[in-house]
Amino acid sequence: MPTLSRDFIKAALSSAEGPDGQPLVRHLIWTAACETFASVKLHIEGVTEKDKLDNFARRVHGSIRAAAAEQGVILTSLIVDLVDEPGTVLFTSTSGAKPSDEQSSRLVKEGESNSPNKASSATNQPTAQAGAGALPGVTNIIAVGAGKGGVGKSTVSVNLAVALARKGHAVGVMDGDIYGPSLPTLLGLAAQEMVVRERLIEPFYVHGVKAVTIGKMVDPEKPLIWRGPMAHGAFKQLTEQTNWGELDYLIIDLPPGTGDVPLTMAQSLQLSGAVIVCTPQKVAQDDAVRAARMFQQLGVDILGVVENMSEFIGDDGKHYDIFGKGGAETMAQRLGLPYLGDIPITMALRTNSDAGDPSANFEPDTAGGEALPRALNKLAENLENQLSLASMRTGKSKPKLTIS
Fold this sequence. Notes:
Layout: H1 6-13, E1 28-34, E2 37-43, H2 50-71, E3 77-83, E4 89-96, H3 101-114, H4 118-124, E5 138-145, H5 153-166, E6 171-175, H6 183-186, E7 195-197, E8 200-202, E9 204-206, E10 209-213, H7 228-240, E11 247-253, H8 260-268, E12 273-278, H9 282-298, E13 302-313, E14 319-320, H10 327-335, E15 339-346, H11 347-354, H12 364-367, H13 371-393
């Protein structure tokens, strides 16, 4: 007769669907079985309402009990724990008889020895980054992503690149948003022509940064309707067939969402980390969480979260929290991610972006005051600090002690 086991529980959950549309088994982080008793823990994110947690747990119970009945497995008791990212139990659901103290102890030991937790999975299973290669001459490659469009990801990418360049670094910025390239407008490239030498694209040099965009290779009004392989090829052409030269930083502006391009990037380029852009409101946070999970699953270190459009600063100097200030920072804290800072909306930022003059965002006279330049410079400073910490964590650099 079949018996309860970790493999049995995983098989039982493989066909049922979780709240995010993924199989329930993908939420499984801990399971144990002892005689006729079983205990499972599943990770659930973004759900706090008791009725939704209960509904999720019922689905787990139903899947396991249905499989047990079909296979003739005796299941006397089932304990389902739903936990958040740090492992805190959000909800517990039990059915059947309560295991004895001895059985509970055996369940714990079984779970500890067979736990498919996220830490061991990350260690034992290769990620997309495992086979990625370096880009010759480029020290740090940083992806800027977002879970949804319209949060100002391209604006953050461009201004971050300019901020780093103004600090004395050699910086490149690549328009990886091959479906909706924004760099031709944001960097004022309309009048410039693309140059190819010896089969290598020569990047534009504007505002102190080297820039490449698919937007200068196609008709400005032509819709880019590309399937996965075409998007894959276009992205690789921009990265691998561009004469980047020596760079301290290459900023890659990704398309929104969790599709083909981020996967291609993670498989082909060894990244120093990723920056997630989010606006304060809840709907943007939900999608930003998915972007964070994508980078983690691909093996990319998340350097931090940026809250864009954090507030509107009018010409009268008043501050208006039109989207609800602080939401992205709260999300970052909940996920245990660094918070890099917030960027306000100003009339000058919109004017300078439309004019293709990001350098103007760093001078108070043309940036509408001190607030915008201060926010952008702070963003670059915090990113450099997080990058240094990430390098030490991965062993790529070591702290230096200076004695004077």
